[in-house]
């Protein structure tokens, strides 16, 4: 029988325990504890699951009460993103509750009862949509908002938009639960972050502004992308976990030093601490100083001193690793495509990474129309010319010729199977920030470690980029040309002169000089796997 998510055994004990993680914002109420353990005083898993389900409800109620006491009542406008997050939060709770119920095991009577309950919920949801009657979701929505310490004017347009959208989502969730009840595999909905909504709500709270307030004001001015905002908020929350939630006027250099030390103890690299954690905090505190919230940035001088010799964070794939990749079943066996590798994506992405040195996301966001064929040959065009593409730097906008080996392997044939207006890798699923490579990248790392035995943590997909640079140097391609191929910057003043677009002819010459024979790729020939 599966265990309830909060049921665990402690080392050396046969008795089951209930364990719950204390939300970050409520830890001051529990003397900074991150989790709480409670003995269930039973060795029977079924009984432990039953007790845990009841205790979890009690803890959720306690958390809601504490949040209600901590937060001022806030009236905020809801963005489309906020509405989506609240709805997904409610869906997640419904699906997770159902999973936990089923994990305890259903006898025939309980199974039949649950089926009847779902049929009734389905009828209610259908009636709500048909009649415009939203009573079935209003109570649940208000509970969700109350849990976050937020109160909305029920007569506002935003509230009506939220309820309308939630009614439709409620019906879809009931459909998913019915499908699960009939034996179909239906995954839970991940619990989303409500961070942007919380950050906006914090502005209206009483008292001096905190770093979260400053972040929100900074966001209003700078209009960060959603991922950048979430990354900065995550750092701010970690900082508050370490030193407590203080108004920005009370933050001292000592707090920055304490945070730096805590990150070092967790094993984070100097580069990560300096370029992410401390850099984000300094950016916000500099903005606060520029806008007269504080006199000066108190942690401006705080940084990790980097030694002359640093460990490599990334390295090239060595010959053994490259041979393991390109002799794997994906390339050695007809139609052997891991499902999680997204079909032909698993075949072509590594090859394009090796032969072009392009970044993973640059390749993942390519459209078929970005593959151009002219009198010189076929090349890819890496650009941010529409809203769906992005580049890391100005120099990242570039054209990269495709090696003749890719043509021999059947890349042209693969292109012919795709709609001319779609993506080069249509099976990739964007994450919540629109990044098309992030989920596939996670699969690639696990697959290389578990299936190919490539356990060196410095070897990741980006290692193809390092390998490509090595191969360029071995072929004696001049630096300016292989920088143009990979989109690297250079401080040379002469690079800023000219049209800004590197000519294709020398790039095709350079690609033709590259030698990949020692890897052993002659056996690779693409055939459609479906």
From TrEMBL:
The protein's matches in CDD domains, at most eight in alphabetical order, are given as: INT_C_like_1
- Keywords of this entry: DNA integration, DNA recombination, DNA-binding
Q: Which InterPro entries match?
A: DNA_brk_join_enz (IPR011010), DUF6538 (IPR046668), Integrase-like_cat_sf (IPR013762), Integrase_catalytic (IPR002104), Integrase_recombinase_N (IPR010998), SAM-like_dom (IPR025269), Tyrosine_recombinase_XerCD (IPR050090)
Please indicate which superkingdom the organism of origin belongs to.
Bacteria
Q: Give a Pfam family name.
A: Phage_integrase
Give the family per the record.
Belongs to the 'phage' integrase family.
Any idea what this protein is called? DUF6538 domain-containing protein
**Protein's organism:** Chromobacterium aquaticum
């Amino acid at each position: 029988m599966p265990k309830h998510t909060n049921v665990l055994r402690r080392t050396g004990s046969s008795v089951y325990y209930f364990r719950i993680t204390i939300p970050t914002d409520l830890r001051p109420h529990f003397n900074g504890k991150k989790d709480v353990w409670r003995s269930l005083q039973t060795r029977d898993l079924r009984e432990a699951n039953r007790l845990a389900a009841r205790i979890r409800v009690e803890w959720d109620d306690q958390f809601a009460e504490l949040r209600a006491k901590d937060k001022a009542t806030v009236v905020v406008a809801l963005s489309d993103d906020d509405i989506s997050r609240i709805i997904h939060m409610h869906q997640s709770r419904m699906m997770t509750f159902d999973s936990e119920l089923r994990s305890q095991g259903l006898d025939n009577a309980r199974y039949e009862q649950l089926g009847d309950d779902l049929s009734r919920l389905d009828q209610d949801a259908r009636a709500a949509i048909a009649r415009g009657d939203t009573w079935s979701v209003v109570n649940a929505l208000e509970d969700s908002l109350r849990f976050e310490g937020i109160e909305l004017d029920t007569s506002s347009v935003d509230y009506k938009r939220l309820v309308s959208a939630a009614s439709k989502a409620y019906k879809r969730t009931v459909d998913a639960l019915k499908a699960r009840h009939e034996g179909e595999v239906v995954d839970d909905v991940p619990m989303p972050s409500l961070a942007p909504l919380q950050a906006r709500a914090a502005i209206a709270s009483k008292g001096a502004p905190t770093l979260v307030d400053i972040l929100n004001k900074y966001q209003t001015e700078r209009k960060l992308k959603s991922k950048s905002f979430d990354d900065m908020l995550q750092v701010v929350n970690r900082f508050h976990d370490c030193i407590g939630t203080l108004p920005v006027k009370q933050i001292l250099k000592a707090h920055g030093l304490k945070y730096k030390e805590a990150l070092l103890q967790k094993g984070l690299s100097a580069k990560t601490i300096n370029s992410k954690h401390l850099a984000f905090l300094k950016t916000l505190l500099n903005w606060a100083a520029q806008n007269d919230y504080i006199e000066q940035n108190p942690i401006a001088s705080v940084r990790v001193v980097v030694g002359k010799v640093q460990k490599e964070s990334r390295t090239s794939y060595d010959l053994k690793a490259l041979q393991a990749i390109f002799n794997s079943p994906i390339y050695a066996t007809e139609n052997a495509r891991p499902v999680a590798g997204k079909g032909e994506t698993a075949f072509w992405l590594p090859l394009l990474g090796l032969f072009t040195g392009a970044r993973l996301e640059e390749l993942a966001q390519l459209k078929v129309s970005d593959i151009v064929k002219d009198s010189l040959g076929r090349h890819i065009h890496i650009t941010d010319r529409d809203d769906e593409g992005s580049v890391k730097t100005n120099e990242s906008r570039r054209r990269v010729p495709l090696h003749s080996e890719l043509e021999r392997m059947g890349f042209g044939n693969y292109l012919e199977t795709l709609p001319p207006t779609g993506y080069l890798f249509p099976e990739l699923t964007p994450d919540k920030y629109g990044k098309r490579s992030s989920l596939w990248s996670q699969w690639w790392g696990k697959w290389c470690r578990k299936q190919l035995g490539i356990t060196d943590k410095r070897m990741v997909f980006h290692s193809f980029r390092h390998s490509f640079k090595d191969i360029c140097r071995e072929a004696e391609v001049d630096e300016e040309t292989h920088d143009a191929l990979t989109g690297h910057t250079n401080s040379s003043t002469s690079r800023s002169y000219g049209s800004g677009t590197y000519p294709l002819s020398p790039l095709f010459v350079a690609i033709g000089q590259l030698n990949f024979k020692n890897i052993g790729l002659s056996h690779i020939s693409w055939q459609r796997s479906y």
